[in-house]
């Protein structure tokens, strides 16, 4: 599998890879035998093993050998993987514009009044933090 300039950490997860990662985030380090029954679809042992090896090559999991089996653990946390997935979605579907994503969610009624109020609070908090950081930077340069 060739890397295309994005590097291992930036490779997007497929649905099945994401589902396996969710098992690892929730259950912790697991073997193929332990992951299989927690997946939505009944998959062959070798399919799950192959997908875990793909995740290993992508740098998304680490593994240690325990007897004849490997125990896999997530190498990236859920927050980082979610951020990368959203970044990829914004880049591919919305031309890199987070505003376009939010506007689409508002226009398609996927974001309601409560969520908009929460977003407004988050924006106000971010603006305050940015202003404070800028003031501290300017004070340090004075």
Encode the helix/strand succession as letters: HHHEEHHH
What class, by secondary structure content?
mainly alpha
Would you identify the CATH H-level superfamily of the domain at 8-74?
A: Winged helix-like DNA-binding domain superfamily/Winged helix DNA-binding domain
Q: How many helical elements?
A: 6
Question: What would the CATH topology of the domain at 8-74 be?
Answer: Arc Repressor Mutant, subunit A
Which strands sit side by side, in order, in the main sheet? 1-2
Helix content: 55-70%
CATH class of the domain at 8-74: Mainly Alpha
What Rg, in angstroms, do the CA atoms define? 20 Å
What does this structure look like?
This protein is mainly alpha-helical and 142 residues long. Helices cover 60% and strands 8% of the residues. The protein contains 6 helices and 2 strands, in the order H-H-H-E-E-H-H-H. Strands 1-2 form a two-stranded antiparallel sheet. A hairpin with a 2-residue loop joins strand 1 and strand 2. The protein is elongated and about 60 Å long. The termini are far apart.
Sum this structure up briefly.
It is built from six helices and two strands, in the order αααββααα. By secondary structure, it is mainly alpha-helical.
Q: What are its keywords?
A:
mainly alpha, Arc Repressor Mutant, subunit A, elongated, disordered N terminus
List the helices and strands and how they pair.
Blueprint: H1 15-27, H2 32-35, H3 45-57, E1 61-66, E2 69-74, H4 78-93, H5 98-107, H6 113-141
């Amino acid at each position: 599998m060739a890397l295309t300039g994005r590097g291992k950490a930036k490779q997007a997860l497929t649905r099945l890879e994401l589902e396996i990662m969710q098992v690892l985030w929730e259950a912790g380090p697991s073997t193929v035998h332990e992951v299989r029954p927690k997946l939505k679809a009944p998959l062959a042992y070798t399919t799950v093993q192959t997908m875990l090896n793909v995740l290993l090559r992508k740098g998304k999991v680490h593994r240690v050998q325990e007897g004849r089996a490997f125990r896999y653990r997530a190498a990236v946390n859920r927050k980082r993987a979610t951020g990368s997935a959203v970044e990829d979605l914004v880049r591919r579907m919305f031309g890199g514009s987070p505003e376009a994503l939010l506007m689409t969610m508002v226009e398609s009624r996927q974001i309601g009044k409560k969520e908009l109020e929460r977003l407004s609070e988050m924006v106000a908090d971010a603006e305050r933090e940015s202003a404070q950081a800028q003031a501290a930077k300017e004070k340090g340069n004075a």
